[in-house]
Amino acid sequence: DPVPIPDLTKCVIPPTGLPNNITPFSCCPPISSNLKIIDFEFPTFKKLRVRRAAHLNDSISIDNFAKYDKALNLMKALPDDDPRSFVQQAKVHCAYCVGGYTQKGYPNTELQVHFSWLFLPFHRWYLYFYERILGSLINDPTFAIPFWNWDAPDGMTAPSIFTDPNSSLFDPKRNPKHVPPKNTFSNYRDTIVDLNYNKDFDVPGTINPRPEVRINENLTWMYKQMICHAKTYRQFLGSRYRGGEEPLQNNCAGSIESLHNHHHVWVGDRRQPNGEDMGHFYSSGRDPLFYAHHANVDRMWSVWQTLRGKRKDCTENDWLESSFLFYDENKNLVKVKVKDSVDDRKLGYVYQNLDIPWINHKP
Ligand code: C2O
């Protein structure tokens, strides 16, 4: 069976997977007494929204970042119980990822959107609504979120628009060695992302390789996860996970999901008890970098669809008919299906067309 929507009326407080070294809290969305759920309809639009690389600083990009800063300030200013607020956006991830929900119709079965073929579609929908809400707050239907272009050499450090402490895009809970706030010192080589990062090996005194060495390792790793380890949808999307089934484990994740996990931990602040914000599912949605990171993960799905061979999206009903719930820009609760997420253009956006530097980095 397809994975059903969560049962909002039985949202678990606190979620079962919350770390026990923090004060427990609720990740449940606000719900009104008449729980009205509407079915998703494709948006109508005159022009596709274009998601652009976050490190670029041409005039269109600068303009777009100013819009993002403004929109996010407005989103952060909404009351905490408004489903469009930034607090609630972060809770969406918490509820779906650390045991906040059970599957509707299976009251004892946890709903989990990681470690399986739900990972890419769930996060695509999540960004879709996040972006639409931001656009509506500034009355600009063309607004598109930027992506962190970490698969290209120029994008391998945190984009500077996210590191200015005066910007709404800033979050103080990040590893200061990897993502230093603007104008604070860190060794350049430490600021280049390690797409295969393992914090257990990063002990005090560890010296990172020279930038060109790290960049090459990253490009090779991209090639592996996008091409060698992603020959079929099974390898790329992750394992099957169906309605009524218990969540899977980490080793069931698809090739790009595992790569993306390393990146989360690399950004997270090791001075915090659980690597908050980016280093734990319950808190990662609190860092605006999350949405830029995930936009690139989402972009990798669109890129993968253009690669050759047996790389075709899944056609299994249990995947296509799986569904999620999100609040939209009008505070309506919308039921969406995986099948409506497979084509980004139908959702009204595309990614800026850039060279894919790892395509020639066969290991
Ligand atoms: Cu839901 Cu990057 O994780």
From TrEMBL:
Its cofactor is Cu(2+). This is Polyphenol oxidase. Belongs to the tyrosinase family. Cu cation B binds at residues 260, 264, 294. The gene is PPO2. One of its GO terms (biological process) is pigment biosynthetic process. It comes from Trifolium pratense. Keywords: Copper, Disulfide bond, Metal-binding, Oxidoreductase, Thioether bond. Cu cation A binds at residues 93, 114, 123. The chain holds residues 102 to 464 of 623 of the full protein.
